[in-house]
Amino acid sequence: MPLFIQTPRFVIRDFKPEEQDLFIDIFDDERVITHLPKRSRKELTDLFQWALKDYASGSPLGRWGIFNNGDGDFIGFCLLRIYDADPGKIELGYALHQKYWGKGIASDMAQIMVAQGFMHTNASELVAVTTLGNIGSQKVLLKAGMTRMDNFVRDGEELAFFRMERQ
Questions:
Q1: Which of 31, 32, 49, 84 has the most CB atoms less than 10 A away?
Q2: Contact yes or no for 49/62 (Cβ under 8 A)
């Protein structure tokens, strides 16, 4: 299912094949990837290619680019995917370039993606995880209506866990 959502400030849309480097390059910023899983360039290329295949398959899940409405600048990406710890749940994730932090874009995007997740899947619950030090993302998830739950450990790292049930 192609995704195109426009707000007064940004657009969330399917990536185009020629935007692969935009997606991969965000992972070159050490401050951005502090709170993301470490991946090789090959793994990132594979993730991008899988996103393109998700679009072609009509899946309501996937990775999408976030672009500035004014100048088309690449802001970052967001995703909805099956939550690996419980396939009945959908996980929200995202990353933004530093220059877009603290501007309310992540909060607006998260609210939009929560609505997308519930409108276009039959998931009973949306979840999100952050590193304990990612206070900004924790605030974003709370503003999106998610509830902070007990921390949990994944791959040896304690993480903050958020959830929202379908209403």
A1: 32
A2: no
Q: What is the pLDDT of residues 30-47, one digit of tens each?
A: 888 888 888 999 999 999
Banded pLDDT at 2 (limits 50, 70, 90): low
Task: Tell the residue number behind the tokens 């924790």, with chain if given.
Answer: 138
Give CA–CA dist 39/71, Å, rounded: 29
Measured CA to CA, the distance from residue 59 to residue 129 in angstroms comes to 22
Bridge partners (DSSP) of residue 82 are: 90
Which residues does residue 130 pair with via DSSP β-bridges, in sequence order? 160
Residue 62 in contact with residue 80, Cβ under 8 Å? yes
Report the SS3 class of residue 108. Answer: helix
Tokens of 73: 């600048």
